[in-house]
Amino acid sequence: MLRLYCNGSEVDLYQDESVNLTLQFTDLQSINAATGSYSQTFRIPATQNNLDILGQVPSTTAVGVNLKTKISAELVDNTLPIMRGFCQVKQVYLQKEKYADIELVFFGGAVDLKTAIGDGMLSDLNLSSYNHTISNTNILASWAGTLYSGQIRYGLIDKGFNWDMSTNEPWTPSDGLWHGELTPFVRAKTILDAIMGAAGFTYDSTFFDSAGSEADFDDLYLPAYNGSQIPIGSAAYNNNAIAALAATYSATSASPQKLPLVDTVTGGQDEGSNWANATNYRYTAPYTGLYQIEVVYSYAEVDNASEIELYIYKNGASFVTLDTTDLYAFNRTYTLNTILTAGDTISLWGRIHQTGHGHTIEGNNTFGTGVYTGMKITAGFPFTNYTVDVAANMPKLKQIDFVLALQKMFNLVFIPDKNIPNHLLIEPYMDYIATGTAKDWSDKVDYSMDVTIAPTTDLQAKQYEWTYLKGTDFVSDAIAKAFDRAYGRYRVTDPVNDFASGEKKVEPKVGAYVVSVIPGSVYPIHRSLKSDGTIIEDPLPMFAYWNGLTENFGSLWMRNDSNVEVERTTFPLFTNYSVEYPSVENYDLNFGMESALFPIQANPANTLYFTYWAQYATELYSEEARIMRCSMRLSKSDIASFEFSDRIYIRDSYWRVLKLSYDANVEGLCTVELIKELSDVAICEDTPTSIDERTNIVLFNGSTSASPDVGSQACCELYGYRWTANTTTIGSVTPLYVCRPLNQTNQPT
User: Fold this and answer.
1) Range name among 23-32, 312-321, 505-514, 522-531 with the lowest pLDDT average
2) Do residue 393 and residue 415 come from a single domain?
3) Residue 681's pLDDT is what?
4) Around 306, how many Cα atoms within 13 Å sit in the side-chain half-sphere?
5) Domain for residue 272, yes or no?
6) Is 158 found in the same domain as 45?
7) Whether residues 59 and 78 fall in one domain
8) Of 117, 146, 161, which one is at a domain's C-terminal end?
9) Taking Cα atoms as reference points, which of 410, 31, 34, 404 lies closest to residue 210?
10) In whole angstroms, what is the distance from residue 301 CA to residue 228 CA?
11) How large is the C-alpha radius of gyration of the chain?
12) pTM
């Protein structure tokens, strides 16, 4: 007998009421959507017991049951649990002004992450337990994996600094990196755990807990970077200042003089008492950090151009010369973003050459109104020794889109636990189905009913595309403009299926982590720069692998907590590769293979597509792929013990269940849809597995240099390598053609 429990209490049901349940694994047409199940609508009597459980109706004209609230629910056959999920009340039926029936929809085992997570952004997460002081001590701890057990690590991103070893070095022995010039990276699993916990979900995952493997998920990080050059702190640093001329200045001099800007003008400001009026007329930086200096200047040269000069002075010496080539300039603006060290002074200086000509530097006792001359200094966060607000630095991305990005990158399935509410098993698709139990259901097929077997051609699109969003950094932008695609894209086209049509795209709402070198060096970093060298104000979220500390690229100079430059002989490395110097057997976070923009041994064959999606797509597109639809007589025990990973043997083949529909109140006929298992269908007949370093030839199928297998052109090019003519001897043979890695490419400028 079927029993329904809502909020832990048994609901009265009509005897023998049909409850038609559909268990559905995936929708192939949307490429591996999250798993779930759904029951059709059914009616229950409006008994007093049911009204007590679901909610009372206060009058004959109002529905007291909250139609928007999920009601935890479980279906049980006698004592055998069938399915957990939730109910929603759709409507209440009245007869003769009395309650008659209540219509329920039972959602069983559905993964409703979108509703549970909602529209919250990553910046809305409670990550305060990871807030920390940015300091030399903590940066070194992050590199060692001891800052929150490696959940926060610091790396280098060029965030508008426009570093160049020949013209704008990021560090020197006398000017080491400030701590704020580095970027915190947050472990992806840390963010995922925070999202799932806030939504009320728990999970198990061998993939997420794959510590020790090369493609260790613990090594996957998200830069905590949203366009701010310096990591955002948890406290306000109110040190802005505005000062202007109280009156027009006309004094002449043989040399530049400090202009008497004061903060007492209308619109003036001195938040941190950093501006000094007479006689200093200057701003003193309260801490080392990034400051924006904006000068608005107005002047009149009645005749004889170049009679007025204006300068920004730093520490009493000319720092910037302003443009005064015109005879007249009113409210001309000059803006400079610069690093100031604690104690640095900034002032505005000027010179009027000749007397008796009426030359003036304009002021009207205001800043922001009329014709005036003044200075506005906006103080950013200090470069060291302040508390970093991790959540505030998160890139602009919804929490659900973060989860879906991981799903699309790693082809994840979300399997609800039958016994624990809101508990999931999360694994890559191919890993999950490999855990299945073999079951022989040959004698359960009802051959008195139609059994249909069809190819998967109707499910196939003409073209599938796996791609990130087009990036806004100058390298990604150059790729997009030159090739009309995002960096790291992979595309599958089926030219031989006359019936396939349309395109389908797997596109996480994140960008590729593109790594190029600091000009004039071999230091690989992500350069978040526009083509003009300026910062990207709203960068895309990105994922990167932590490659550890490396000695391969040289040392760097960074200030310690006493502000003394110290040479660090290792370099913190984040890239799209699983190791610092990758080769064929390693892993790449791009979907498709790209030419590297920094030195590597060889392009990894294990891109996201080939590691997590290729076998799935190969089985779908295989000429042997088949869909079976049939009727089966399954017992309630068969259904209760069923898992989507089960390998179902029918006569001479193994199949996987895609959809199973049945009446939970009656033991009998079920409608089943299955897809044929084709795990023995290879992605290609040859698989790249290593490289011969001496000859730079890619080897296939586990072969060695002594007995090489150089593969085939089709498989070489499928993975993204180059099939080239050859005159080099490898082992004892000289193949006419060989497979070689992509050449390193020059980065755009």
Assistant:
1) 23-32
2) yes
3) 82
4) 0
5) yes
6) no
7) yes
8) 117
9) 410
10) 40
11) 34
12) 0.84
